[in-house]
Amino acid sequence: MMLCVTARADCIIQLNTPVLPDYSATQASVGSLSFDVLCSGDPISYQMQLQTSNGAFQGLDYQGLLSSGSRTLFYSIYNVLPDLGAGVAPSPTVFNSSRHFAYTIEIPAGQWQPTAGVYQATLTLNLMVQ
């Protein structure tokens, strides 16, 4: 997966290496995508948005397509919210301090028609200061 990132000078996004094991039609491939938002100075309210070519990631789950030419594989992204402790604004998607974010990526088993190759999807991560 290719990940594009936008942020502001007072907060940075530190990406961790995405993990996605090879896929087999007989067994699902489950991996992860994680990153840290590191903010300095005064508390900064921000919202994180994961976007795909189909638009913004809404809610806690997303289903899309990985592609290799005209061939496709279905995949899902499941959001694992960070510890919503002190410093969280009223909305669970607005944060006020440095946080770790993690997403689970799954390619379900049973997709027999795809052939071997590299399948990809582009994800964009936006940090929007409130």
The domain tally reads 1
Topology pattern, helix = H, strand = E: EEEEEEEEEE
What structural class do the secondary elements suggest?
A: mainly beta
Radius of gyration: 16 Å
Overall shape: it is elongated
Provide mean pLDDT, rounded.
76
- State the separation between the terminal residues, measured CA to CA: 28 Å
List segments where confidence is low: pLDDT < 50 over at least 5 consecutive residues.
83-92
How many helical elements? 0
- How much of the sequence lies in strands comes to over 45%
Could you estimate the helical fraction of the residues in percent?
under 10%
Protein name: Spore coat protein U domain-containing protein
Short key terms for the protein model shown above:
single chain, 130 residues, mainly beta, 5-stranded mixed β-sheet
Provide an overview of this structure.
The chain is mainly beta and 130 residues long. It has one domain (2-116). The protein is 0% helix and 52% strand. The protein is built from no helices and ten strands. It has strands at residues 2-6, 11-15, 29-39, 46-52, 55-56, 61-68, 71-80, 94-95, 99-107, 122-129. Strands 1, 4, 5, 8 and 10 form a five-stranded mixed beta sheet that branches. Strand 4 (46-52) and strand 5 form a beta hairpin. The chain is elongated, with a radius of gyration of 16 Å. The protein starts with a strand and ends with a strand. This is Spore coat protein U domain-containing protein.
